[in-house]
User: Fold these one by one.
Assistant:
Number 1:
Amino acid sequence: MKIKPEQLKDMVRLRLQPSKGRTQISDAKAQPGREKPPLVWLETNTCHGNILSVMNIANPTFPELMEDIFDLRYSNTLMFGQGSQPIEVLEAVMAGEIKDYFLVVEGTVPTKDNGIYCVIGLKDGQNYTALQAVRDLGPEAKYVIAVGSCAAWGLPFGAYPNPSGSKPVSAVINRKVINVPGCPTNPEWAVGTLVHLAMYGEPELDSLNRPVMFYGETIHNLCTRRHYYESGIFAKKLGEPWCMFKIGCKGPVTYADCPSRQWNGEHVNWPVGANTPCIGCTSPEFLERTAPFFKHLPDIQLPGVRVASDRAALATGAVTALGIGAHLAGQIATGRLQKTLKKGFSGSFRIKKGKPK
Ligand code: SF4
């Protein structure tokens, strides 16, 4: 079944809400008769959750994506070649027999002991490591796309003490890597990015090389419970229908469009909609510094005001604190913060005017 050009446009812009900085591609045209980009999907240290998530894409379907838009050449999960066959495909790519290919990497890349902690096959009778594969395939790829937070940020495999020396893709090759984080990635973030690259070239990226069209807003800005936050009405335990900031929600510092796009292929639901706080899975701080998931963000130092939590999280990072600080600073500027804190945070937050201690 051939996919219609209109479907491609719809897929890339699907359910995007008008917002600052998002790529507008409504005037883009599909190109009948164009070459299908070869796709090499390399799985390194991963749970394979990202390719499984991408298989849930609804429009186009996954077979349409792989047959009509791309020419899938290699995927550890999907291919049925055995023994030397898959590695021979990679060798053909490296030899230049397959040009202008897209390299997707899913998973972290172990680097310790020459990358021996992730072996993807045998090449010339020797272990062929993921580290070597990324270094062999990366330089000549038309695009390198790190799909999922493991590939984009290096965690959780790279979490302390990181015995395998696992790193994100961008740390092991010296070239631009487009990051499509998430644990797992939303199928439309990954497929939308790939299709945009195939049809229209590189989308607008943020400072962390994430496509702005999917990661241009915080969860908090799009959240359906935002009015409860503004009114200071907070859930004290899971299951309550109020804002979950005080039970650990990382939405204020997490960039992704989950609230408007939603999940489950047919846009059925998303974490906050299912009564669980955002765990910040698209953030570079995930997982080491967004855990514990059910503790709220830590003490916040602002000029002249100290907002202290009596249930401070253990180790949420400075970036997170700065992010929430900036958000609250904005609230101070609009006069909303003190009202909110006095009403809603009493008992959990103390406000002291004067020099921060
Ligand atoms: S803190 Fe979380 S639940 Fe509350 S409004 Fe923000 S994103 Fe929504």
Number 2:
Amino acid sequence: MPGSNMKVLHYRCTFIVIFSAIFLNHLQVNGQNKCDKCNIPIASGGCKCDNNCDCRPGLGGNVCDKCNIAVNDGGCKCDNTCSCIIACQRPNNWCTNATATFVSVDCDGDGVLDIICYDGNKKRWMRRTSDQCQEKTSVPDSACPAVFMKLPPPARAGIVNLALSSRTIVASSQTTGSRPSYAADGNNGTLFHSAYPEDVGSGSESDFNPYVGLELSQLSTISKIVILNRPGFEYRLQNAEVRVGTNAITNRSSTVDGNAVVWKQTATQGSVIEISLNPPVVGRWVSLQNLNPTTWLTQEGYPYVLNFLEIQVLGVPLAVTVVSNDVATRPWSVNPDTASNYISAGAQWIWATSASAIYDAPVSGFIFQKNVTVTSDTPCNLALIADDQCDVQVNDMYCGSIVHGWGDQLLQTVAVDLLPGENVISLRCVNQPLDDPLNRGNNPAGIIAALRTASGDVLAQTDSTWVVAGAIKNICEVRKCPLGKSCRPCSGRCL
Ligand SMILES: [Ca+2]
Ligand SMILES: [Ca+2]
Ligand SMILES: [Ca+2]
């Protein structure tokens, strides 16, 4: 069992740090002192500095040169005196009992490996770099979240952690070595950490309202969000907000505000923050933003930083709803000749959220998607009936539009060319307002489509395997019209 002494290898990268960090925490740039160089552009003779006004790594001739440079390049991770932090080594015969489990993992989030041992009797031994590899026993879960803190599994069948399949994860800033993806990589040991003055890996040192935004792989119904906060730094999160919606989030902070707040922090939270959404919320984008009231650079401890180990977004992807298996169904009563194209393809009427859309649906828009893989260039025709209107895109390229097509109207098609490999067919469809607002009645919504090669082979047809990839908030976004027609700007209707 653990117990043998191991010398902690501490390697001095450098000479002695001369000045006290206490007095130099407030960097000055306008006096005749060594802090003059700090945070002035390199081209003007300046550099980024640490607490001691020593130039940050990689800029030559200073005590911290080795810090945060790749080990293969002669560098190391450093502590705050620029001493290299060496991974905790496993002593001989340490954690070799048959019932013991040995793990080498970064428990404390400093980027250097620690070692953990635990057995079936809940006994624990730990050596962390932040403890100079001194052995500790009977440690709490929070001492090594990567090993001991397990987020709760999804509560119900069918509920999945949507964050793990995020299409993109963006962050307002991050420190050296941290990545936006650490926010939702399924690893409770990888820490997302926003930038601060001593470590501006990417972004701004004055990122006072840092955020992370996740784009889910498709529009989803979200019932719960779980945040695994950074142990020991829970206090940083103040007035934090979680937002969910369909507005895309970029590195411009204003884009976060486009989605609705679903949770606002009102009190200091523990390490695990569970946010139940009841009723569930539909969205494609999820953001977590720290809105700590401290917004000055030199505040000790940088309370405005956003740092957490993992975020879970629990819910279900929004599948399409089949509103009818019968192309000739009312209210659309499709021309029999036109209908045969859909019947032979086995296509179904679909809409986004409710089977009752066949009777009545809100004025709304959705993006329906299906991936189709071909082995060579494949010219195709997409036959489509749309209540009321769809733009057709393949791999984000606009190909044409369909308006209506039911009753006695003839078959309408859009030519699309598929490329070798996987192609994303997107139908951006809206249910328009009723033509005659005075003649109020129900407003059905639905689409039916079949994709065929030039030789007539069916490559895809609308059915329950399509997904709702997004929502269209402004129905005027879909306003392209069939060939030979023009669009009235922002009316959603064709002249
Ligand atoms: Ca460590
Ligand atoms: Ca993580
Ligand atoms: Ca309609």
